[in-house]
Amino acid sequence: MTAINLRHNFTPDDLPKIAHLWAQLGWGSEDETGQQLVQQALMGSSWIAMAELNGQFAGYARALSDGVLVTYLVEVAVLPSCRRRGVGGALIDACLQAFPHTSIYADALPGILGLNRRHGLVPRPSQLTACSRGPRPNGAA
Question: CA angle 51-55-58, nearest 5°?
Answer without folding.
Answer: 35
